[in-house]
């Protein structure tokens, strides 16, 4: 799996950590086919781009694509062209840091959580459709994080 990590100026995170854990996530999804729930036809082309941004960019993208006027933790952009990779995840590092502090856990755990969350969106899961879909997606997310040897 090829993972490209891009940073907005003045935003930095552990690139090796991100790449290594994205590869682990993909491997976990691929070896546990039931997690995929036949949601994605792109799983044979796992290239992924992970972009770390600040609040301003996150807010702009969130408004442009979701009509929500605030910065968000993760945005997922599925690649809809066959054989061109899974897609792109945009993570807002300041939001992730605030969420980690609020939840009283590490920024690394928050990044893993949002990478997992973003992966699920790229594979077709959507927690905003219904409470049932939300419960299902969050349960899968929790199970994956428990299985993932990420430290």
Task: Summarize the structure in words.
The chain is α/β, with parallel strands linked by helices and 151 residues long. The chain has a single domain (3-147), classed as Metalloproteases ("zincins"), catalytic domain (Collagenase (Catalytic Domain)), CATH 3.40.390. It has helices spanning 15-31, 33-36, 55-66, 93-103, 107-122, 131-147; strands spanning 3-7, 48-53, 74-78, 87-92. Strands 1-2-4-3 form a 4-stranded mixed β-sheet. A hairpin with an 8-residue loop joins strand 3 and strand 4. Helix 1 packs across helix 5 (107-122). The longest helix has 17 residues, at 15-31. The model has no long low-confidence stretch (mean pLDDT 86).
In short:
The protein is α/β, with parallel strands linked by helices and 151 residues long. The protein has helices spanning 15-31, 33-36, 55-66, 93-103, 107-122, 131-147; strands spanning 3-7, 48-53, 74-78, 87-92.
